[in-house]
């Protein structure tokens, strides 16, 4: 079992006058920030601010790439042709990379958002398009996503590093897939329970599934939701419980520049 | 008088299904391409394509940055606060730079577009914001624009290189400013006349003004419009006449990577 | 067999500085104008202009409703939830209706565009959402679309009038469906052939299919593409051939206000 | 002095996943709802919902029209040409009117938003363009705005009804203009003080100005901000204080359909 784990969260998801979540508070919890790049959320002011705060705290910056769909927050699957999808992803990575550069760092990984995240779990055409964008831009960038997804399979075949994530506040089926969001009990809301599950996962490799049996989950990183009520509290609970259990919290990307969050205990 | 001159044009100004001008033909004429970055025109597919073609032909890529205004094509002045404007410009430069990188080159200069171009001629707040973006992103990038503009003044004070352009198809007042677009004779349409004027400018440093007197115009580059009817023909006429007059056509940026267009005679 | 037929075309599909097709020329050919409403194309200036021209020529105005996707021109299927889709369609119909009202007329029918058009052929959820929008806004508005589509089936069950269209320049399978666009021979380009086929369809009820056999096609209206090269010429060829064959060209909607195009011979 | 007054507030100003203010709570306070139409905020789902709630509570619906600027929330002045501005305003009024119609009512007035609101106070070109849109769409619609503005002057000359508003939480200069937002004391935050001032205004026609002298303010309606912290509480305080002072709270538009809010005491 890993003696260390990364914590990631979706950040920078406001737009213009509108805010979503508490980016600065979450940046005290996570070690990797999936920063929205402007296609489903995020505007240049937000990208600038989140990159600056992340760099200051040593949080690694990743590009949270999406379909071009502000009105739908990138949550609607779209039949985008692969060439366009590759270029849309390239555009987003590059734009964010500019702000990371201004903040003294760089985009260190890529994570698809929302409907694109779900589609590339099974759709080879779109998964291939995302992989192609990363290959073109920087083949040193890992892809953060669901273990055993088509995205990870294609990425691995292409020589890209893949990083698997578990969801802290989501129930798993006995097969290791997520219980669909609209099923009862799909989303866990008790910070204590969530924290305990993550400690169990990190120390034993398994968590209790929706039927009560245990299921093995591969996790190089734990995804913490940043935009739900109580998100920051839950994130802190998970982080504190893991730390208390002797797990080191650190980015899955090495040499991220400044001192990472694990060197800076959250207040 | 310069024995050489750069030719620039606005390119990549379609969007989605809509096209504007003939990018590939203009890339055979110019040595510097002002590529739209997605805020007034240009989408990721177009950026990819134009950067690829430009790189292949040795045409230098510049970021044609704009207000965020697709519906108005960036032609409407907007009272954008300086912080937002800096970040909007950063976002555009970085996004385009990603596609330039994929094409094996990089963004080599920055040129404001449309209403932003006009505003930074006199508005120190917005001009300063544009300069700030370039300083943050890469202080090696020159700013292409109007000689004696506030933009160039602030840029020069900040240590940025400024590059002055003349407009091939525009009439000048005796004071060296452009005759306003809606005045009679403001836009020249005869390729022969336009080409002769540019030869005169490059060999003598002056052109005839709207009142008949001669006026001195500083020009490190000549701007050729790419989206008017006959744009390509006019561009070729200017290029051919300059070449015939012994002027070398080459980018104002050195070491642009591949062999520049002046080594590749237009067909 | 009908002694009369409607001709429809997609119009108003530019955006901002970008144009597409020749709206005014097509308005001399068709009797029903499917006017883009701003979600895949069309801006308020264009809506105003096309409605004014249509009203002046007695061409009936229909709302060409789409997914919200300017970058993809509404050609990418999107998994929009039914409530949102209903409201998106309502918004578009109402916006266009305002310009039709200013032009002295009103929106008289609704036609889905692009990927939405294709999706509602088979997807009951999205088809139901479109029908719901029409029921809410004005149950007197017919739905123009593909015969035997799920959209038409749901619309008819809901008491809406349905209007079936044939495609002038598309090949049909022996089963009466369109030959997919990327198959050889899917799109017909010879105006003479296209015009002859439409005369055959209107006088006999059948056309030759892709395998050579004849296939019966139900058509209350013929769709003429407005944005392809030669679109206007082909449209005129169809109109002239039908007129020469004794078919009256008139809108499928009665009492459209001003004198319809069939009273005004094209020049 | 008026024995009655209207209360208005900007509503429906979320977009997609993002929310702003508490529309339903404010709809229990105001008698006129300035509903965002999609250009600076508001999407079709929001328009539908706000119109439905407003209609149910008898709150009059007005079109809060704006520049096309989602990223800037319509708060940046833009040099939009009058024809485009007229058509942009028409589009917004018409779109909202569709949802009002579905809710069993109609758009009953128009109020410019943000930077457009400020510009039409002094700019005759843009003010004329807004007036033109109302004249074209429905000359029965009043324009809600600042007394003595150029907008109201042009509107009145054109035969439109003008409705003047006072700002509950803003300080006034001795000349009756608003103290600029960035000056100390420009925005009042104490609900008690704000409520007392509005009672004073409604019973005496004057309020204390920023220098202590009294200033006469014309007010057919009081604008309550809906998106600030404590907005609902302040709105209720104003409403309750006015009611306690014997002022009737009712819409400035008569015959708005359902029973207005003044017949339904806020809880």
Characterise this structure.
The structure is a homotetramer of 267-residue chains. The first copy, chain A, is α/β, with parallel strands linked by helices and 267 residues long. Helices cover 36% and strands 17% of the residues of chain A. Chain A is built from eight helices and ten strands. In chain A, strands 1, 2, 3, 4, 5, 6, 9 and 10 form an eight-stranded parallel β-sheet that branches. In chain A, strands 7-8 form a two-stranded antiparallel sheet. In chain A, strand 1, helix 1 (23-26) and strand 2 (32-36) form a beta-alpha-beta unit. In chain A, helix 3 (82-102) runs parallel beside helix 5. Chains C and D meet through helix 2 and helix 3 of C and helix 2 and helix 3 of D.
Specify the number of helices of chain A.
Answer: 8
Return residue spans of chain A where pLDDT drops below 50 for at least 5 consecutive residues.
Answer: 256-267
Which of globular, elongated, flat, extended, rod-shaped describes the shape of chain A? globular
Structural class of chain A: alpha/beta
Biggest interface in this structure? Answer: C-D, 24 and 24 residues
Question: How many extended strands of chain A?
Answer: 10
Mean pLDDT of chain A: 94
What is the string of SSEs of chain A from the N terminus onward? EHEHEHEHHEHEHEEEHE
